[in-house]
Amino acid sequence: MKRVLAVLVALALVAAASSTLQAQSLQSTLENLSMDAAKAYVDPIVSAIGSNANGGWFHRAPMGKILGLDLEVGVVFMATTFKDENKRFDYTGQFQFSYDEAYRLAQESFPAANAFAWNQLALRLSSQSFNLRVYGPTIVGAKDEYLTIDFPQTTYNNVIIPGDSYVIPGQQYTPRDPSGAAINGLLEGLKALPLFAPQASIGTLFGTQATFRYLPEAKLNDKIGKAKYFGFGIQHNPEVWLGSLLPIDIAVAFYTQNLKVGDLPLFEAKTTAYGINASKRLGWGFLNLTPYAGFMLEKSTLTFKYKFNTAFAGQPYTQDITFDLEGSNKSRIVVGASIKILFINVNADYNIGKYNSFTLGAMLIL
Is the pLDDT of residue 3 over 80? Predict the structure, then answer.
């Protein structure tokens, strides 16, 4: 986690970390583009965390009855898989130079020119948009590939000498993290990101079942600080009001949770999911098979806060960096089945979305 946070900071401050004069003159524009590149770089992990957290909440719809006692306690395991397309990114963003940035760039590119020529070129540079390409491995990409920034070559006609032109050379460079290392795929070979959560459900009251995930607040260590986790959700079967109109149980559902680790540095994950699911119990109360399926809309947001100590232009400074990253999964289709034998229920399902995942649950039914 510390290494990942360091990479995020390095991307946000890539202009300050670069030693080239051109990169220094592009500082403000590069910082904005680097933030987008940083999001693309860590998207597989951010999306996998959100995908895992929003999975495993249900393995059947509650029955449409007014009152019943159904208590489950157990654990859910989730794993989100990574595809080849998740291992690289290629981002192109547009920006404009400020006049001061353009003037410095004109001076650096053509030191033999005069103030009039620098001014004319700066006016041209600051009046149009440029593309800047950032590409390379994501955090789960290859370790022998490195994040790269490309600034394209640009040619301008000389406003003083007809037929003459200015050629601003293209530039390619590799940003580095605070340790000085080029940024590559830190987690090469990671096929899937696992996660687990303790879970308990209680029902049924007017066709409604409540589900909880909880870990008591605990101190991890002096550097990271405390961690706490809580999640809550409900399923409601509208057949309790409408009567048994269908041969299956259906439910509308909503789930939300929050995981917070540390204060500064801080890692916080917030997720929500809502949708509809259906199930059909086959067998008896003490021995049954229950196929289930569902469609969920979802959202996951991860916040990183980090205090960064560095130096720029010979002056030390401290900066608080904050990232708000959103997972790529917006919806999922869930298909699975559960088996109950006496007081034990085991379920497994496959979740289909932009990032696919598996879940496995084991519950003691009291």
Answer: no
Is the distance from CB of 24 to CB of 105 less than 8 angstroms?
A: no
More confident residue, 14 or 359: 359
pTM of the model: 0.79
Query: Is the Cβ–Cβ distance between 35 and 11 less than 8 Å?
Result: yes
Q: Which of 227, 208, 202, 209 is nearest to 217 (CA)?
A: 227
